[in-house]
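Hi team, as promised in this morning's meeting, here are the two structures we talked about. I've kept the exact order from the run log so nobody has to guess. The first one is mostly here for context; it's the second one we should focus on when we meet again. Sequence first, then the predicted structure tokens.
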Amino acid sequence: MSNWRHKPDSEKELLKLVAPVKHVIRWLKTRRGFIIGVGILKGGTGKSTTVLYLALYFAVVLDLKVAVVDTDDNSQSITRWDATHKALGDKIPFTLIEHPVSGKDAIPLRKRLKALQSEYDVIIVDLGGGDKETFIDLCEKARLLLMPSAPSGWETDRIQATLQTAASAARINAEGLDVYNFFVKCDFNSTLPEEEREAMAVDLSEEDEDFILPPFLHPYFDISKAPHHIRSWNVMPKRSELDEWGWLIRHALKGIIDEEEAA
């Protein structure tokens, strides 16, 4: 683990927090069409990096059939990354699907996702920074929503609005929606992640009766400020560089898998 500030006391302690790899593979293959949304109602928070590394982890390490749906009409970061690496001759191990949110080819996201579920083990949706209708559609269909941001108020100021929108939309999600925040771009020589968690956890209920406490993943699984995240625009990430993302998603999935298997 790269996050030495929150290193677990033992491997046994760490493994209690994550679903075993073989268990994750078996569960996802049986379930089919597991939908993960990645995004906040704000641009530039590490969404596309998260989408890329999770897609590579599922496809390369777990050998699952993965689709990435790019809904971000503004930046289309994943779409441009895909074009860049195809031009470099790299093999892309997941399927990219562009989802325009406006224009003649636009359809509701929920319809596109329903059509994809029978074809893929995992579907990861890269949400645009400001299209609320697409975000609501995602929350109605997804089982997991991940909200990455750097540990700075400049990036986390839209989390509360996003949580409130997600909570409202999830009321008609038949399977339920698990939502988690986590930090990316972390320099573990500083205390910024701890400071920002504390700031975000301040109870504002007296001022806002709709306040929702940000649901953070365990600090063990904060994502590092590694150079390969920046280089990945031009250099395909190595398998070894996917490990911290694997720990993160196995942690996020553990509660969902345990809950559904106990039902």
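And here is the second protein, the one for discussion:
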Amino acid sequence: MPTSFEKRRTAFGESLRELRENAGFETGKDFARAVSWNAPKVSKIENGRQTASTDDLETWLSAVAAAPDVAEKMRAMLAGVHDAYVTWKETVRAGHRARQEESVDREARARIIRAVEVGVVPGLLQTPEYARHTLLAHAELHGGGQDITEAVRARMRRQQVLFEPGRTIELLMTESALRHPIAPREVMLGQIHRLIAAIGTPDVRIGILPNDVRLPYPLMHGWWIVDEIVQVETVTAELTVDDPDELAVYNRLTDTLWGSAAEGDAARDILAAAAVRA
């Protein structure tokens, strides 16, 4: 099934093809010659296999002499495509604080927050020291390490939602996040004790997927469900999913995973054992 991003990019490409044909360019090759592009680029953009840049769109609009209202519609469509798939390099070019502040605002308005994390402790439960190490690791790969201290402070502000009533908050993580630590021993010990203390927070459900439990589906990445959108982090980018059918799939899988999770005292036992090993 195509993703939200793929659907948006395909629809955008089809709209560009209609503009090209209505302007009298019978083939993509004709259009490519007119704008000094290679023909495969036109084909890939029209068939949703390549994302057009803002400059690409402006070149296209100029070549087809698009009416002002049509041009604005196409710019809005492309913005939607770009919003659905943003590379980390783009996101953190100016630093990590802004991305954390986006989460502060989004989660402060949210009624439902459901997180599934595979290799890291959920941000809403991280200690400042653990958060610093995760953000530094991210900056080492993608850049944007100039404001880590401010980014950590913003991540800590996100945690205020844990103590505000009227929300559904479910935070599920794998035991492997503790078995493959991102931070030094003393930091991991502090993080483990923070998790132990957090279990039992009113209106906050916390669970751990044990290493030896049989899972109903292979976990290839984590995700966050915030009201009606899903955010998925890959190594290179962050995807925003708002398709209702996809949202339903993520919610269904999240429900299923909770059936395999350790909660309460069982989760505390896993954390206590992790502290001994740390």
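Starting points for discussion:
The chain has 13 helices and seven strands.
Residues 4-22 form the longest helix (19 residues).
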